Amino acid sequence: MRNKLVLIFGLLIVAVCVACSGMRPTVFVNKQYNFNFLEKVAVVPFENLSNDQGMGPRLTHIFVTELLASESFDLAEPGEVSRVTQKYIGSSGSTLTRDQITEIGKTLGVQGIILGSVNKNTAYASGGSSGSEVTIDARMVETETGQTVWSATHTEGGKGFLASLFGTGGKSEAESERKCVKRVIRTLVK
User: Which of 28, 110, 119, 167 could form a disulfide with 42 if both were Cys (CB 3.0 to 4.6 A apart)?
Assistant: First the structure.
């Protein structure tokens, strides 16, 4: 009887550890770049690659707010960033060249430009429970050389192990979005 209780308790601990482990962001950091050089950065509106029409602007606003809350950098005013980058990016979502990045950096007075995309936004409902999953890719390009100095991608949300086991709901869309953004930013501003 005692062995069975130990086995059940051990399996329960393993299940909790698996449920709590979650995925971690995938991160690239240029080890030769001196991040102390960054005083002011610009966040370009995120490209929306998901099916949710409002996801790009929504995630951009959350990203800007969380980056401001970190107090790590001064940020160029989002409206000014949109105005300056609009002539290069337009509505097609095209990428920026090194020359364009350098010109934007000089115009806005920033040392880094953060570019991002929302790659996935999935809402699900099953068995009386619901939740949401979101994936964000973000990278910072240094404006003097046009080199990427930081990049991260992360997926947050989805139905976890315990939610599947006990039939409880996953994270709401807002929770998944905010947590995903926070985890991505933490890889930049530790």
Answer: 110
Cα 134 from Cα 158, distance rounded (Å): 8
The secondary element (H helix, E strand) that includes residue 153 is strand 148-157
This prediction has a pTM of 0.79
Smallest CA-to-CA distance from 182 within 149, 151, 150, 156 is with 156
Burial letters for 107-135: b for 16+ Cβ neighbours within 10 Å, e otherwise? bbebbbbbbbbbbbbbbeeeeeeebbbbb
**What is d(CA 77, CA 100) in angstroms, rounded to the nearest whole number?**
19
Question: What whole-number distance in Å separates Cα of residue 39 and Cα of residue 48?
Answer: 28
Query: What DSSP assignment string belongs to 9-66?
Result: HHHHHHHHHHHHH----EEEE-TTS-GGG-SEEEEPPPEE-SS-TTHHHHHHHHHHHH
Domain ranges within the chain, ordered by starting residue? 26-189
Residue 119 CA to residue 61 CA, distance in Å, equals: 16
Q: Give me the CATH code for the 26-189 domain, please.
A: 3.40.50.10610
Query: What are 78-100's pLDDT values in tens digits?
Result: 999 999 998 887 654 557 889 99
Collapsing DSSP to helix, strand or coil, 148 comes out as strand
